[in-house]
Every structure is written in structure tokens, then in C-alpha cells.
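Next comes a concrete protein, fold included:
___
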Amino acid sequence: QVQLVESGGGLVQAGDSLRLSCAAAGRTFSNYAMAWFRQAPGKEREFVAAINWSGSSTYYTDSVKGRFTISRDNGKNTVYLQMNSLKPEDTAVYYCARARLTNTGIRTREYEYGDWGQGTQVTVPS
């Protein structure tokens, strides 16, 4: 198993930026696809962005395309989510997750991820 620890959340104004980080400790990080999900109050957790094991391929949900960027540094066992032009509807707890299988491409379904962080709160007041 791997421990995932998110950081970087906070309270920001609409239009501001934040960079979330997810540090992995334990088993190998670099061979796994990684993703960010989020859960807003009263809603189900939803997919936000994913990156394949090498970092050569990324995928985003439509609502964040052009505003969010997922990246990874396998040497630091860390995945990032750069969030620009934040909107009130981005308010949520953000979770990073590691895919169940190694050396796979992009995965967007929750069940395809087996390890999760504790989450970090992002709040953008309206």
C-alpha cells in the first residue's frame, strides 16, 4: 500500500490560483497512473484530472479544461494540480488517488483507483 498526503488547499477568491500537491510514501509511485477527484458538499465525488504513469498523457473533466493542469515529478514521488481562474463551483474537498494497476494509461473511474489521500479543502466563495 502507499500513503498519499495532499496539501495546498485553502480559501481563495474567484479568479485566484492554487497548486495542490500529493506526496506518496511507501510502495513505488512512478509506475502508476494518478488522478485528482473532488467532492463538493452534498454531492458525489467526481473525477477532475488524471495523468499516466510517465506523465506523457493527461485528461481532464470538461469543467476544468483550460484552467487546471495535472503534472507529476516521479523523482519526488509527487503529483500536482495547478488550478487557475478558480470559480465558486470549484469549492470541494480534493483527493489524490493512485491507480490499482501499474503501467496503465489514463483512468477516470473511482473503482480503478485503490489508494486515496485524506483530502484537502479548497474554498472559493461566491
Observations:
- The chain has a mean pLDDT of 94.
- Residues 38 and 94 are 4 Å apart (CA to CA).
